[in-house]
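dumping this here before i forget
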Amino acid sequence: MDKKYEFINDFVNCVIPKHNERDFVYLDLHIKIEELQDFITKHKEHINKNNGFLSISINKAKKDPNKLYTNFSRKVEVSNEKIVTHKEQMPDRDGLPF
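structure:
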């Protein structure tokens, strides 16, 4: 039986990337230490499974490529159970509940 995986993303709001004016510096990272410690505590199990590493991606926004943000993605195993959609669960309801 094949295992299925999906990626779960979290924004890392405590790490803020910003472009730098100097040509030899690609970008600066501004880090809110207390929030980063909380983030590390929250994802401690993932960090321990990855030999103490936490990988954070620096992405650019689609609408404004000058805007940067940080993202944490992790791959989790998805169960093979069929996911029941709202329409399958309540077929007599269509649209808003009122």
